[in-house]
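Morning F.,

Quick status update on the modeling queue. The single chain you submitted on Monday has been processed. Sequence for confirmation:
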Amino acid sequence: MVIAADLKRIAKVLTDTSRSNRRFLFGFYGLMTFVVVGFVLSPLSPYDPRRWNMVPRDKPPSLEYPLGTTSTGQNMFWLLFLSIRNSLVIGLVAGAAVTVFGVVIGLIAGFKGGLFDRVVMLIADIMIVIPGMPIIILLVFLFHKHLSLLFLSGVIALFGWARPLRQVRAQMLSLREREFIYTARFSGKNIFGIVFGEILPHILPWTLAMLANFVLISIGMEAGLAVIGLSLSNEATLGMMIYWALQYNAIFRNIWWWFLPSILAICFLFFTLFSLYTGITNLITREA
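Structure tokens below.
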């Protein structure tokens, strides 16, 4: 019954065309477009887009090469698709790690209280105070030769879980005093049954908004690391496309098709994720 009600609620949201819901729909369908491009169309490339000298160099956009080619002999069309996929992987993995850890530990700490809650909040406060970006730069620099998509995602997530944890705990402190929680306790449910069966559904929309927000942050952090040369040099990401364009002076050589598609993709991806985040937030506020 609960699952059926949730499905009806999702269907209602997706078919609602009111002004307050348009931002969410734009973000949702925009993100689905990026997912299709990155995970469905990208594998259709006839060759590895990362390999150099696969096509003629510095060719402007044409029917044969819709987005042109680079000075390293790469097809920008397929390289962009692969870069979108890898950037989404970094964002989704880091965002999922932060969201799951922050929500789970925050819910348990807020519900359980006591020493466990105090220790968790002490660690969270320390992580918030510590400047994350300089340490991320240092870790990426130290392990630069061993970087992978998952490792980079983990490093980004390492300094992002504290704030969501605090926010979830604050919501838990309010929810745990509701009457339905006392009813669940008297019925004999254990802490995990109450936390994940009774409380988690109430904060699920907020959790999805937090996930969209941190996916955006993670992609932006990777792009920033890439521009200064501290991302995955052997992989294709939106940030690394800009890095290589800068290394080969594409701007000064007027090879605009090398850097412009990646910049536009990042901007549109950011706008899509921001619209999704604010759209979910507006829906939560409207239903509250």
